[in-house]
Design brief:
Strand content: 15-25%
CATH class of the largest domain: Alpha Beta
Strand order of the largest sheet: 12-25-26-27-23-24-13
CATH superfamily of the largest domain: HUPs
Number of strands: 27
CATH topology of the largest domain: Rossmann fold
Largest sheet: 7 strands, mixed
Radius of gyration: 31 Å
Helix content: 25-40%
Number of domains: 3
Bound molecules: adenosine-5'-triphosphate, magnesium ion
Distance between the termini: 24 Å
CATH architecture of the largest domain: 3-Layer(aba) Sandwich
Structural class: alpha/beta
């Protein structure tokens, strides 16, 4: 990645690493990893962890591994592995050949467990899962020691070997670390490190019927890979003493774990467990639904990886929990698309306009600018003819004050075209609804200015009816109605705050003919309306489908202006 504009300012993690570099800890190396569990699709919260881990490695000339923490064969699968790789790559990061799997260390982890047993630091326990829970105690009461805690090393070695050999049923025995049942940290109360599970694993097949627990696996996988800085989210802070214990008992390479706050955002939920419910219960159309905060959802919606990385740089890294305004992410998307997306004209809710004094069979090709922000993007021709479409809400029969768009007797400018003046309104006889308006145009105003210097107060976008392409446009809004959908009233769940208007589908839109052949994933600004992306699933050459990526109106810029006077960088 050469674009360094998203480089982050110094935060507490980078300060720690600077100090380690200064003192020569880890011989001046920085080696991080991103460790997803392949049991779901990545969301914007994961993108924060990805940007931190890959970003820091890159900045310090180090390396970042991609490691799948695949210790739970019941919920994991190859489908997720491939999807995660695709998403990390899309975000703009590369792990070269450093793609690892915790399951690749199962043999090594088994040996570490045997070593702990030999040191008298682990034992086979016959308590049932329920009993283990019961013996564990609570936050305020200490736990009780298992009656199997003092088995001999020989007996433990024999039982653990037979657990591996498949002699015992699921749940009948576990291997536990022998630490301290009275510890104030519940994670230290003889945690289970191996369980029996006669289930095939997506990578190791039926080789194993015992599986290491996440906490045991995670820290030792980091150690095996020579990770220097194990950067993870704050919920692992309480697990750090346990990780330290495993690493110190075994006397192996000891990475420095540093925890940072999880990303939370307004109007969304960021937890696989809840996102799964939205998918499985049909609130959205899958993991890649453009309303989902997943990376594939955002990609389909039209967000760019550059915008997401820029967003991460702006929110920075801290230890304290906070909730980031969704509008900031949208602001970053808008800012990037403003630079790279070509402008086109599209009419979402068409109203027919007949220009009475324009020749019936004439078509003019008018020059339009592709992106005023970037002259290098050139120009294109848009056809103009007698019958056009404009937006329904760009006309009002009885306009209120401050409505400057088209109205009876009023003149406006058509973008790249002429001044037109409304002379007649045609209504549906039954409903009274305006179905067509008739105008005249002033041939002298081609290009948008009147030689006599008269002014108009509005410029409308339009398309030529004979040349326009039909399209479906999907307008997306927040998935939840409440900034914090997890703040639930009694008797409700987060699902009670799903926005019934999160998707509006317009099937009768008209877009300019230059969009013929628009490819899935391409992004455009529809002038005056917003940024749109060609849907990668449903759009076909003969039936264009666009997703609204983000509106034109920048609520974040507004908030910023209110809060900070608008002159500071966000
Ligand atoms: P979830 O809570 O959504 O189920 P998870 O933490 O179980 O996610 P993992 O696959 O374990 O999912 O996540 C991989 C990495 O991403 C972890 O190191 C985790 O710390 C980090 N991560 C997950 N969610 C967030 C978030 N909201 N903000 C920052 N980092 C996150
Ligand atoms: Mg996790």
């Amino acid at each position: 990645m050469n674009d360094r504009s998203d480089r982050q300012p110094k935060d507490f993690i980078r300060e720690i690493i600077d100090e380690d570099m200064r003192t020569g800890r880890y011989e001046g190396h920085v080696h991080t990893r991103f460790p997803p569990e392949p049991n779901g699709y990545l969301h914007i919260g994961h993108a924060k962890a990805i940007c931190i881990n890959f970003g820091i490695a890159e900045e310090y000339g180090g390396l970042c591994n991609l490691r799948f923490d695949d210790t739970n064969p019941c919920k994991e699968g190859e489908e997720y592995v491939e999807a995660i790789k695709e998403d990390v790559r899309w975000l703009g990061f590369d792990w070269d050949d450093r793609e690892y799997y915790a399951s690749g260390y199962f043999e090594k982890l088994y040996e570490y467990a045997v070593e702990l047993i030999k040191m008298g630091k682990a034992y086979v326990c016959d308590l049932s899962p329920e009993q283990i829970k019961e013996y564990r105690g609570t936050l305020t009461e200490p736990g009780r020691e298992s009656p199997y805690r003092n088995r001999s090393v020989e007996e433990n070695l024999d039982l653990f070997r037979r657990m591996r050999a498949g002699e015992f049923p699921d749940g009948s025995r576990t291997l536990r670390a022998k630490i301290d049942m009275a510890s104030s940290n519940i994670n230290m109360r003889d945690p289970v490190i191996y369980r029996i599970l006669h289930v095939a694993h997506h990578r190791t097949g039926n080789k194993w019927c015992i599986y290491p627990m996440y906490d045991f696996t995670h820290c030792l996988s980091d150690s095996v890979e020579g990770i220097t800085h194990s950067l993870c989210s704050i919920e692992f802070e309480d697990h750090r003493p346990l990780y330290d214990w495993f690493l110190d008992q075994l006397g192996v390479h000891h990475p420095q774990q540093i925890e940072f706050a999880r990303l939370n955002m307004t109007y969304t939920v960021l937890s696989k467990r809840r996102l799964i419910q939205l998918v499985e219960e049909g609130y959205v159309d899958g993991w890649d639904d453009p309303r989902m905060p997943t990376l594939r959802g955002m990609r389909r919606r039209g967000y760019t990886p550059e915008a997401i990385r820029n967003f991460m740089a702006r929110i920075g890294v801290a230890k304290a929990e906070s909730v980031v305004d969704y509008a900031l992410l949208e602001h970053c998307v808008r800012e990037h698309l403003n630079r790279i997306a070509p402008r086109v004209m599209a009419v979402l809710r068409p109203l027919k306009v007949v220009i009475e004094n324009y020749p019936d069979d004439k078509t003019e090709m008018l020059e339009a600018i592709n992106n005023p922000e970037d002259p290098g993007m050139g120009t294109r021709k848009v056809p103009f003819s007698k019958v056009l479409y404009i937006e329904q809400d760009d006309f009002m029969e009885n306009p209120p004050k401050k409505y400057y768009r088209l109205a009876p007797g009023r003149e406006v400018r058509l973008r790249y075209g002429y001044f037109i003046k409304c002379i007649e309104v045609v209504k549906d006889e039954k409903t009274g609804k305006v179905i067509e308006i008739h105008c005249t145009y002033d041939p002298q105003t081609r290009g948008g200015n009147a030689p006599d210097g008269r002014k108009v107060k509005a410029t409308l976008h339009w398309v030529s009816a004979a040349h326009a392409l039909s399209a479906e446009v999907r307008l997306y809004n927040h998935l939840f109605t409440k900034p914090n959908p997890m703040d639930v009233e009694e008797g409700k769940t987060f699902k009670d705050y799903i926005n019934p208007d999160s998707l509006e589908i317009l099937t009768d839109c008209k877009v300019e003919p230059s969009l013929a052949g628009a490819m899935p994933g391409e992004r455009y600004q529809f002038e005056r309306i917003g940024y749109f992306c060609v849907d990668s699933v449903d759009s076909k050459p003969d039936r264009l489908v666009f997703n609204r990526t983000v509106t034109i109106r920048d609520t974040w810029a507004k908030i910023k202006q209110k809060v900070m006077g608008g002159d500071r960088k966000s």
